[in-house]
Amino acid sequence: GIVNVDNVGELGSLIGIYTSPLAIGVRLNFDIGNGIVSRFGIDVDSKSYQEIIELQRRGLIKVKCVHCHISYARGLSYFKKRAEMMARYAKELRANIVDIGGNMLVAWMTV
Question: Which SUPFAM superfamilies does this entry report, sorted A to Z (predicted)?
Fold first, then answer.
């Protein structure tokens, strides 16, 4: 199995407990052009993201999954943008699982 992490602090705690390389999923945060900044995940433009890359390079972690939080932007164009971004970062981190979240095109019905 894997452990999903939302920040580098969580990851630091886990590295000390489990055998390396620790298989993880990372929740990423990136701009999809909707003007909303998510408070969830590791910003791909941050020092924390670079730490993830370095920890993997050193063999302390193995990123298996990339995930993103679904904000209020749930239109098809935003899902497309998320999928493109997630594919980009999955390739960069050599992750074989891409989790773009749920609630895609949910049909809300009234009873």
Answer: PLP-binding barrel (SSF51419)
**C-beta atoms surrounding 101 within 10 Å:** 15
pLDDT confidence of residue 87 = 93
Q: How far apart are CA 101 and CA 27, in angstroms?
A: 10
Tokens coding 26: 């990372």
How far, in Å, CA of 110 to CA of 36, rounded? 28
- C-alpha 25 chain-centroid distance: 7
Pairing of strands 61-68, 22-29: parallel
The residue extents of the domains of the chain are 3-99
pTM (predicted TM-score): 0.79
Q: Which of 103, 5, 108, 100 has its CA nearest to residue 61?
A: 5
- CA end-to-end span of the chain, whole Å? 40
64, 95 Cβ separation under 8 angstroms: yes
Nearest to 52 by CA among 101, 90, 18: 90
Tokens representing 94 are 């050599």
d(CA 79, CA 58): 33
